[in-house]
């Protein structure tokens, strides 16, 4: 077996050390972003300071400043972090619900509505809504949020087309998608203090039936259009 020369070992050691440092830096950054997200949920955007984030993340003030020299630099990074997280989580929740080679059923649609409800109850959604609400009266935050929100809406609709192939070519896709999202968001942000689970279940049941009707009508309309050509 060939022996590793001292020269080769000297070259490999710094590379290994550099790789570990990069990994450690990435882990610290992620811990800070996760901590910021938790702070938004627990104490709100206005009360979240860099010191509180650092404490929650378990990092020193110096490490915090190394990664994020200002409060707004943290906010920009968290917004980008949540943007990617929310798209990924939606894709994971909706994967395999709508199978293109099988008939779409009411059960499939109801399952998608349930997943949409789960989606708006995830920490990423709650944290993002806190930032969105704060941006209404914070011009600096709004300047960061607006382009991200526009990009999210665009990507979100494209993602809906990819995960719901039965709806993909139907004009009803966008309004049906909006109906689900607006209703789920409104329900998640409302203060239902009594019989919350039972009320949510009824709304999900009704919405699934409405979506099934919209789908059936859209299919009939499309078939009529195609036959008329």
TrEMBL record:
Residues 49-68 bind DNA. The keyword NAD does not apply. It comes from the Bacteria. The keyword Repeat does not apply. InterPro entries: Homeodomain-like_sf, HTH-type_TetR-like_transc_reg, HTH_TetR. Keywords: DNA-binding, Transcription, Transcription regulation. SUPFAM superfamilies: Homeodomain-like. Residues 26-86 form the HTH tetR-type domain. This is TetR/AcrR family transcriptional regulator. It comes from Zhongshania borealis.
